[in-house]
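Below: protein 1.
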Amino acid sequence: MYRWIWPMLLAALAGCGEMGVPGGGGDGGGESNAFTMTCTPNPFYVPKGGQATLTVTVGNLEGKVAKVQLTFGDNTIGVNSIPKTQIVEGAGSAQFIISVESDVVGNPYFYIYAVGMDSENRTSGMPQTDCKVQWSY
């Protein structure tokens, strides 16, 4: 009795596309948020009881990434940084003054952590990365 409904239903469904797939109504994917980061010099030399400057360069900002927040990871007792946190607007660089106490013992490395931020300083959904900096004295 209703045999004609199935062929019409299949023809109607075949003409419809799905969101996000070729032939459909979506954009085929989301915008990529990304950036690159390098720490130089690496390996890094700091004399015990002294200090040295580490340069962190941020580049290749993609998507909604407008700036990058850099934070010194104080995972080694006796190794400190001034400042602890900096924000690089767009592509550019920042410098951290790393000091090492004269009686330092411990990890021969530290980290600089980075998180992307949009133009309104939001970090939700933004990429994160880090530099593991090998140091010696």
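Below: protein 2.
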Amino acid sequence: MVSSENITFTESSWFGWKFTEYKANGHNLNGDYTMKKVIVDGYFTNNLGDDLFLKVLAERFPHVELVILSDKKYADIYHQINKLKVINKNFLVKVINRYVNFIPSRLIPKLLSYSADAYLEIGGSIFQQVNVSDGVTVKRKNILKSGIPYFIIGSNFGPVMTQEYIDEYRSFFACIKNITVRDSASYELFDNLNNIQLAPDVVFGLDASNISKSYLNRPYIVITAIDLTYDGRVLGEKYKSDSKGYRQNMVKLCELIIDSGYDIKLVPFSVFEQDANMALQIKMGISNKKKAKIEIIKYTNISDILSLIKSASGIVSGRYHSMILGWVFRIPQLVLTYSDKMENTITDTFPEQKRVTIKKFSEKSIFKTFTLNEYMNTIDNDNLKSSIHRSKLHFEKLSNFLNNDSLN
């Protein structure tokens, strides 16, 4: 055992990445004295669902330094998560662009592999085929080429247009350390690989017992609506819908909920994807005498927004992770499904969940009155416990690797 008085370390850096060498009496120390570092890549634009991935990840690996790249305007949320190091994406890109001509291209992948112990891509819909010509991205190929241990956690696969897209990613997945997916439909595309596992969504790993309730005077329903005009969302034909009809029927539903004695909290999960615009349009459509009963909640603090959702009497879940939170907190909910990923998750997890596609919701007003028992339900306790337990599988291989165990 080496005493702490004999331990020294030196740090060097390259464009924001720090390299730390620990020594005791002049000898390099092993991993027991060095905090492991993982580069975490994902959709980090203050989308609550993806931010919850980071929260669960950080709570699962408190002794690992997790490094993300994020635009400065989004950084405040990520500084709320312990053990998360945020590097200004814009600054790093500028630096690399300035000096890239002085660095031999063959060294860039090596620099990546020297900067951390592993590279983790975490997210949900990160494999969507937008164009027929799409395949494995250049970025993913370069990361694989670097030799850094490459993990993917928590995704689904699709929508897909061609078999070639599936085949190309099958070859890619076979070359990385490990991948986990969150629905059976995605798993069955690649179940011939020995480095893929299926587990319920990562956010089932959220520790609900550590989230306090926010006690408000009046009962309320949380609504998470999406903006169907956002062009970055890939919708299949059976989910494509009329934005005007969606908005009008959302207004009608809100007024029915208010008439039944509830206030409404509109919670935009993603400003980047224009959820806040839709929330504002819905509120503007409410009659003046009922406007005081509806509030738009700005997402600036993860703990506060989770407390608000946990304390709701019910949820109208127009977002995937609103649905997951409804289950985690066991809150009655109505799910408005906008993609196969939502339908697949419901089929895998709780087929009895009350739901309607946004296409059907937008075409006609399907609600004449509103009561919780008639239109909302939630997962049973045994099913929830099973989902929480099985979701831990997402982190098993990465944990084994970081603990220097075998992946086999």
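The radius of gyration is 23 Å.
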